[in-house]
Amino acid sequence: MAPAPGMQQIDLSKLNIGQLAQLKQQVDHDLQVFQESLQALKIAQGKFVDSGETVEKLTPSTKGKTILVPLTSSMYVSGTIADTENVIIDIGTGYYVQKDIDGAKDYFKRKVAFVTEQMEKIQVLGIEKTKVKDAICMMMEMKLQAQAETQKASSS
């Protein structure tokens, strides 16, 4: 099997048990990082979906209605919808843009699609790393059995 881009191929049979254990620890760490990244992306995906749904709810009939506007994740202020044809979107790192409703819907759809694509890439990498981990564990088990048999043979 050819290694994935960015990965190097290692003959596990040439590594000793200590090296295999160290490699397994590194793979476990990589899997943990992938899991944390997936979790962060899932949260971002949820926020983009929620924002898109909120924009969908803006109609001319909502003009003048009172809403709670989030200043932070835990602090809201009362506000009134003054414009139902344009919204201001936080595009990250303190930058905001004004978009019409269709532009905002499109923006959030694109962001959801992008985040979903990134999540799928990380899941594929996670599956590959899990296969590597399984191969390492299998090789460690084989080497431990061979070592036990050698000790058993030498003691008889």
UniProtKB/TrEMBL annotation:
InterPro entries: PFD_alpha_archaea, Prefoldin, Prefoldin_subunit_alpha. This is Putative prefoldin subunit 5. Belongs to the prefoldin subunit alpha family. Keywords: Chaperone. GO terms for molecular function: unfolded protein binding. One of its GO terms (biological process) is RNA polymerase III assembly. It comes from the Eukaryota. The keyword Chaperone applies. Pfam families: Prefoldin (PF02996). One of its GO terms (cellular component) is prefoldin complex. It comes from Papilio xuthus (Asian swallowtail butterfly).
